[in-house]
Amino acid sequence: MRRTLAVMLSAFAFFGCFWGVFAVLLADISRVLELSPGPLGVALFVGALASIAAMASLGWTSDVLGRRLFIILSAAVFGLGVAALAFAGSYGALIAALVVLYASSGLYDVGINAAAVDVERAAGRRIMAYFHAAFSAGGFFGAVSAGILLSAGVRYEFVYLLVLIPLASMMAAVAATSFPSSVGQSEDSAPAVGRYSLFMSGPLLLVAAIATLGLLSEGEMEHWSGIYLRETLGLSALVGGSGVAVFFGAMAVGRLGAAWAIQSFGNRTTLLFAGSLTALGMTTSLATTGPFLVVAGFLFVGLALSAVVPIAFSMAGDLAPEKAGAAISVVTTLGYGGFLMGPVIVGGLAEVFGLRFALATISVAGAAIFFLSLRMKRA
């Protein structure tokens, strides 16, 4: 179990590392291809559609193929997407790369979270927050590393290719690891019948809605915070990367403490606090142009959002323990749709009203998390 736990932590850490790198380098891709927020948002929208379609149609196969094979296959295609992104020299090539990248990353996300639910149940205690803390720690490392490499004169294409090294190592580790079976069934015999009926479950949809708002906010921060710091506020690549890293670092620290908060105060109270702090932190960041206050606001947003997704995935597994992969697929399809659609919404709003106004949607999402969480006890 210890080896499986370590491998799962590395799988989440790699995923976060890539998105940390991506958050910093998105400004470079936008500059090289001469894209304003609108066209960039359209490209992200196409990728979002591919990801949502992939998760909705194929996410359930993590219960049929088994966690190990599912993660390896999705990671392999994910690597192709990363390489394609590095060599994207035109707008069309960028869109094609994002389709492959986002579709495979969505499936990879389903796989590692379904496996995490199995590991959590086998361990007999709440440890989902630690997996997501590993994701955020990886994001911190990726953002800082990308900022340092760019400041040292390394081309952004080469930084992307460097991501393939930890990806290959992670895939080898997963291939050599055994995973616990889903509750009440073996991994290679999970029933597919009834998986779509989960999309009609009221309690599961409420959890999915909260996850969607949390991931929408995370997606907007991960995709646009670097551009906001580097382009709108005119900060250097190192400072811009550090601001993104502060968000990821706060997420990591918050998720390490989230397990304690959830055990002490429960899911509902923790989510109420998370929603209100998200709204307050983002409003603070957007109300000033001072780098210190902006980054401080990012820190509070990261701390606030840190517990939202772990709670959602754990609750999804509790609601359908015999079909954890399918339940996770529902939450991930809708939630990850928010993660991908959020940046698209920001891109469209920023094209018309400016990026500062567009990022205010995170404050609105925080308030919505607060009000939806009030209904959790009833659900």
Brief descriptors of the model:
Growth Hormone, Chain: A; 379 residues; mainly alpha
Write the layout of secondary structure elements.
Blueprint (H helix, E strand, L loop, with lengths): L1 H31 L4 H22 L3 H4 L1 H20 L4 H33 L4 H24 L4 H7 L1 H12 L26 H31 L4 H50 L4 H15 L2 H12 L4 H30 L1 H4 L2 H13 L6
Helix pairs in contact: 1-5, 1-6, 1-8, 1-9, 2-5, 2-13, 4-5, 4-7, 4-8, 5-13, 6-10, 6-12, 9-10, 9-11, 9-12, 9-13, 9-15, 10-11, 10-15, 12-13
Write a brief structural summary.
The protein has 379 residues and is mostly helical.
Characterise this structure:
With 379 residues, the chain is mainly alpha-helical. The protein has a single domain, classed as Growth Hormone, Chain: A (Up-down Bundle), CATH 1.20.1250.20. The chain is 81% helix and 0% strand. The protein contains 15 helices and no strands. Helix 1 crosses helix 9, helix 2 packs across helix 5 and helix 12 packs antiparallel against helix 13. The longest helix has 50 residues.
The level of helicity is over 70%
Class computed from helices, strands and strand pairing: mainly alpha
CATH architecture verdict: Up-down Bundle
CATH class: Mainly Alpha
Low-confidence spans: 183-193
Q: Span between N and C termini? A: 34 Å
Count the strands? Answer: 0
Number of helices: 15
Strand content: under 5%
Query: What is the CATH homology-level superfamily?
Result: MFS general substrate transporter like domains
- Mean pLDDT comes to 83
What is Rg? 19 Å
Overall number of domains:
1
Per the CATH scheme, the topology name is Growth Hormone, Chain: A
Helix/strand order: HHHHHHHHHHHHHHH
**Largest sheet entry:** none
